[in-house]
Amino acid sequence: MKRSFAPIIVMNGPAAILFAAVVACFVALQAPGTEASSTVRPPVNGAFIFSYFKNNGEDGLHLAFSYDALVWHSINADKPLLTPTVGRDRLMRDPQIIQGPDGLYRMVWTTSWSEPVLGYASSKDLINWSDQQAISPMATEPDVRNVWAPELFYDGSRRQYLLFWSSTIPGRFPETDNSNLNGRNHRIYCTTTTDFHNFSPTRLFYNPGFNVIDATIARDGTRYLMFFKDETRAPVPQKNLHYAVSTDPDGPYGPASAPITEKSYWAEGPSAIKVGSRWIVYFDKYYDEKIHQHSEHVYGAVASGDLKRWEDISAQLSFPAGTRHGSVLPVSRTVLEKLLQL
Fold this sequence. Notes:
Blueprint: H1 13-23, E1 47-53, E2 62-66, E3 73-74, E4 93-99, E5 105-110, E6 118-123, E7 133-135, E8 148-155, E9 160-168, E10 186-193, E11 203-206, E12 212-220, E13 223-230, E14 240-246, E15 265-275, E16 278-287, E17 297-304, E18 311-312, E19 324-331, H2 333-339
Antiparallel strand pairs: 1-2, 1-19, 2-3, 4-5, 5-6, 6-7, 8-9, 9-10, 10-11, 12-13, 13-14, 15-16, 16-17, 17-18
């Protein structure tokens, strides 16, 4: 068995007691047929998985695991588990994975900087994947410039998947056309599906009044939280994370919150999960100590128990080197053990 971490995986005696204490605060995974949610906790003896890409996303899907959602270890010696085959540029950026009520893991990702095509594949075990599928959700918008950072959320009340992403349609929101100095002026769009072959008409999903990318949705009891990035660079750089609230995953979502990340760095690609009573929002973090003339990609996180007061806990994190824009999900111990045999 190949492993790239120090902790012992099979635990007995005091180690097992300690591990049980760590995860005792996690609530059980929802039973099949209920709404999937990023606020559920892994069961006892479960773990967290983090999907991510490296460099520009050329080599494919990378996975890491953690027992405490803070210290992450690479899986498969940090070699990719799936190589991209769809899209003109053959990239696998921003991979996001959820598990549906049928037990299948479903992943979507960015395939290109400029081709408006996203990738989709499914798996029973996160190891063996279906044939990759190219989806063109903006086909009715011939001038669209891109389809970035797609994500999924399972809407249990409607028994369908909500698929959403960021796109620029030139001239659609002229008041913020120059907000990023590169002609890109994003808003969040969405469609729904039950089978990933037939899709509802694409629609505008969220417009906070500014250039917005990298949306992700998490359930919080009877409400839903959408975390996202303010992509504004001009006239005053923002590049920070916010959230909005809705009583329905399908929206509408309310106004953007105040920034939850600091001004001393730029943040993007949020992924959120509730561990015990505390929300953790991970993000791809890049520092700007020379007025945005130099940046260094590292992974960061902020945490909050009330969604009002946010603490930067980046110093508590440990991620595989080069981790970029990923997503977090809970898995069973059985799923993890099979991954660790790679």
